[in-house]
Amino acid sequence: MAAKVSVPELTPRREWPRLLGWRVAFGVGVLLLWELAAGRWVDPFWFSSPTRIIVHLVQWTREGTLFGHLIVTLRETFFGFILGSVTGILVGLVLSRLEFVAKVLDPFIVAANGIPRVALAPLFIIWFGIGELSKIVLASTLTFFITFYATFSGLRAVEPAYQEIARVMGASERQIFFKVNLPAASPWIVSALKVAVPFSLIGAIIGEFMAASRGLGFIIQLNTNQFDTTGAVSGILVLMVCVMLFNGVLNRLERYVLRWRPRERAGEAREFQ
Amino acid sequence: MDPILSLRDVSRQFVTRGRLVPATAALSLDVEAGEFLTVVGPSGCGKSTLLNLVSGLLAPSGGTVLYKGAPVRGVNTEIGYVTQADNLYPWRTLRENVEFPLEVRGVARAERRQRAAAFIERVGLGGFEDHYPYELSGGMRQRANIIRTLVYDPEVILMDEPFGPLDAQTRLILQDQLLDLWDAARKTIIFITHDLGEAVALADRVVVMTARPGRVKRICPVPLKRPRDLFHLHDDEQFRITYDTLWDDLEAEVRKAAETWRRK
Known about the structure:
By secondary structure, chain A is mainly alpha-helical. Chain A is 86% helix and 0% strand. The longest helix of chain A has 38 residues, at 173-210.
């Protein structure tokens, strides 16, 4: 019994330093190879190089450009994420209770989710202006469907025995919903929220590509148009770092919310999503 | 005294793949308050259906289920149900699981804590209160599952092969603990098992059910005095006689059930 309790906790902890070491080694290796290749096998005018990017980023930071644009994109991403996932979860909760309505709406939801967001972006800019609002709405159209489907399916997949046993123990329908269905669906919802964050960022960037005067997407677009690959790649790298940081925070959150799940299973979701 | 529970000609059918399959037919049974009743029968004879009918989770297709003289309509929350799979909520710790029925019944936090803690200590789970189900062994989970039902003090407790998946030694320990708990509270227990030895060891009366559609074939009182020493019961003359008598009945039904399988 004692062994069963301690094993799942020990393994990932011991593995962690080794994992981090190899990850850093991989990242540095890729950058070194790129640096080596630039000027030898490929023309840095088209492909830039890590040293150029570092110099560029330092300069951007000094001028204050980077922070100014970054904060705009992050704000759009954040509010797009909140708007889309809150409405997604709410609609998921409501439709999971209204079986018939859900069936009626099903093809329309599928169709709406199928719209390429690139096609929507120009419309949103007409409707909501070239400011941050159009990007927030665009980002939310991505995060909405991710969280909606997860919430809806998660609530549908609740083990009926969990509900029946609660009913026998004297729980009301309302109590079953809050104390059984919601926690049972929480792994679905949490993993959807995790997936939704990078999608929200994608939505914001697509919006900025279409029409904007600020934001990282705008900067990447501007630099690409001027054939400044270093500027474009610098912007992309900043985005990549943001996604990595978000994911780190979200993993922590996930591990806390889903602390009742065996580590190995939580670990699987962590490493491969 | 009036029986606390009685089933009168209860039948229940299920539709599977468009075919009507009777699980029980004309099942009649009276359960006295405070007795420990065990039910044995061949697989698929509707033992679990019986418990679902008694708890009100299933409505009978025919006949009536009476609880304290009144027909059961909807889920009867004066009854506790210990299912075969432990069905502990994986997102709740052991303590939170045991407190669940008290929580939904609006028992104050402090009292909840205290009542749960008493049961947890009693079955030897002290020190594991804050563990989640995945961190507990099968035997620990099943004990938690049982005390989660006992903690709200239901009049009648239904148990569906609660020790089925456990190893022989763990079963023996849990059976012993269960008898202790029952002895202290003297609630009515209907306990389903496929293990005749377990049925005789625990019961005041053993019900043998027929092969599907299940009905009562025989009810046999167990003349063993209490408290019983489960660890040495197999040497007991009375135990063996009761066991052998019941086995004759059960064997016939098991063979009948096996025969219908072959025909399919």
